[in-house]
Amino acid sequence: MSPRLLLAAVLLLLPAAQAQEPGGGPPPEQVAAHVAHSQGLAAALAREGGARELALAALLRQADAQQANPEATSEAPDAQAQAWLRAAAAKAGADAIANQLLIAAAAKADPIRLEAARRWQAAEPDNLAPLLHAGLTIDALLAQARGATRADTGMYPAVRWIAEAWRRHPPGVAEQAAMAGGEGFDLDEAAAMSAMAVWAAAAMPDYAALVEGCSAQMLRAQPARRGGCLHVARLLADGATSIADEHAGLAMLRALAATAAERDEADARQRAMDWRMLQWGHLAQQQPRGGAGQFARLLRDPRIRSEQQLAERVLAQGGVTADPPPGWQAPRR
């Protein structure tokens, strides 16, 4: 988790992102308002004392500390945040959201993070997602993933909970005015976008080692991995609940393709994803505050369990087909 990235993501997704100064980042008053509210939110959550609350408090405190001292390394421990993490870990049990927040807040090699991943995996043994945070070697991951039948990061349940915590402890009047950047402040929008930014910056798995371990070059040296790599790739491509997970799965399927037909299928699926993401972006740009209001409304719908479902709903409401026109190609990156 990079606290600096977390803060940047939160700020850029808040409604006031439209009021950026020429030449780059958010206005200083917006940064100050966000940090002040984040500090207060962390303290309030810690006082509530639940496992989820303590883990989120630690995550927010680390982001605030990094912002206050940008020269500090991301590995520099914060005594209060570590105390909150230990207290959260002692209470987390099988609570998936509490363990996800512990994973997001703890350093990669921290035993707190690894134990949280193990607790989550024990509670959901059919789920690939916890294994991606468990510090396993590629071969151990592939072996343990044999029994997995889904790849559910639990993103939207966690984001909904974070947004609710944000709404319970809203910014003060002056902070709201600074965050809004001259526009009206909408609590639901700010809570939803902040919660999504926290998750995106801190809780997503790192697929680099998995993708490399299942690359064509590595499989030439380790051919016994192919079956396990294909299983994991299909779980991510076919059953993931986030776009990032699906994207990783499709990239793996493309690398693992043994025939022209398999490569064509992977390419076609990638084009369809690119189409949906680009159209979602275009539709959002046509709405006030980059579609924050629509996102907040859809996030409240418990029937939407994945990012893919939310994207499809946005496209349907905008009258855009979910499949690209024949011959469509994504703009070159």
From TrEMBL:
UniProt entry keywords in alphabetical sequence: Signal
Annotated signal sequence range: 1-19
Record bears the keyword Signal: yes
Protein's recorded name: Sel1 repeat family protein
UniProt organism field: Luteimonas composti
